[in-house]
Amino acid sequence: MLQQNSLLNAHKLKLRWFVTLSTLPLLGVVTAFGIMPQSDVLTGPQKTIVQEIALPTAAQAAPSTTTFWRNERVQRGDTVVELLRRLNVEDEAASEYLRQYNPAASFRQLSVGKEVQAETNAEGALLALRYLDNESNQVIIAKSGDSFTVDVKPALVEQRTFVRTGEIQSSLFAATDEAGLPDPAANQLAEIFGGDIDFHRDLRKGDKFSVIYEMTYINGEAARTGRILAAEFVNQGRTYRAVYFQTTNFSGDYYSPDGKSMRKAFLRSPIEFSRVSSGFTNSRFHPVLNKWRAHKGVDYASPIGTKVKVTADGVVEFVGKKGGYGNVVMINHQGRYETVYGHLSRFGNIHKGQRVSQGEVIGYVGMTGMTSGPHLHYEFKQAGVHRDPLKVALPDGKPVNEAQKMVFVESTRDLHTRLSLLRNTRIAKLD
Length: 431
Prior knowledge:
By secondary structure, the chain is an alpha+beta fold. It folds into three domains: about 65-155, Nuclear Transport Factor 2, Chain: A (Roll); about 155-265 and about 395-430, Nuclear Transport Factor 2, Chain: A (Roll); about 275-385, Glucose Permease (Domain IIA), CATH 2.70.70.10. The chain is about 15% helix and about 40% strand. It has seven helices and 25 strands. The strands form five sheets. Strands 14, 17, 18, 19, 20, 21, 22, 23, 24 and 25 form a ten-stranded antiparallel beta sheet that branches. The radius of gyration is 42 Å and the shape is elongated. The N and C termini lie far apart (about 120 Å).
């Protein structure tokens, strides 16, 4: 029995496959060897079977369609090459185009701080550049075949109107900051009412203001503060109101509800928001001379470099050094008035005989001449006689002429209505 089982097992074929991959797999062939094992029992002929098995062709990898966006801002001293490097652009053709070709000139001229967006593929080839040029136009430089196209879309400019109200607790600037009024509009507010309100001395806690002003938006982003359209200021219980009225195709001004000009012939002060350190007096102890003498002007304590503005239209009579004044500018106004600005650190872009306009910068605060600290010495003369700049009655500007009176009333009616609504809303809120 055991012998029969051995014989049966010996007659069973045991095929062992050894699969050897070719050393050149790209040929796509595998050789299979089938080996019939040796056996003492088998008496038939032995065979070696060789068969070629074709492998499926490997699929070619599809090119990547992934793109990448990166934002960078232009830095001082940037070159085209350096900016492209930070944008992860590795494209010599794009670099050459942006560096040399006229349609891309706006890219080379971008101001410091401007943002640039770049789209690249996985290899760093430039697909598109997007940015706002120095005129706020939208520029898109895009890959087109072997070159690039430049598409310039005009900036979308719009005017939006805002309203702000506030109450004085300590200073005008603190109140306007609290109300969210931009600094340029706060400066306008001070200029509009500066002929009637001395913001150095007249402000009181509880004074209130309302402002309607414009903001310019470019491509949906706030770009600059525009003009105040209307404003109201309540100072020590007295209400002052002003609206802007276009008197010609090219100019306009601020007027009270009855058409009187808010612009005085003279600004009350040549410096914004400074402190009066020494007033007009016939007897003052001079800190340098150490003796009593008249002080025929007003001193405004301000940091060195503070802008000094001419208080009225006029002609430069003198600019240079003069005795205790140090660096001084003297302005003649209509032959009747004269203003003096002393102790300046330097002068504005002015010269003798030049006409200057109210509010123009004529110099900067310093401490030249006979002075113990940085400040502006300001004098006001009428017919050659010194007057106290803080108390003298200043002449008014020109009112709305009779021919435009009806147009003025109709065109500003809505602004006055809105100011009244703001005042009532503010009072109700505070109560």
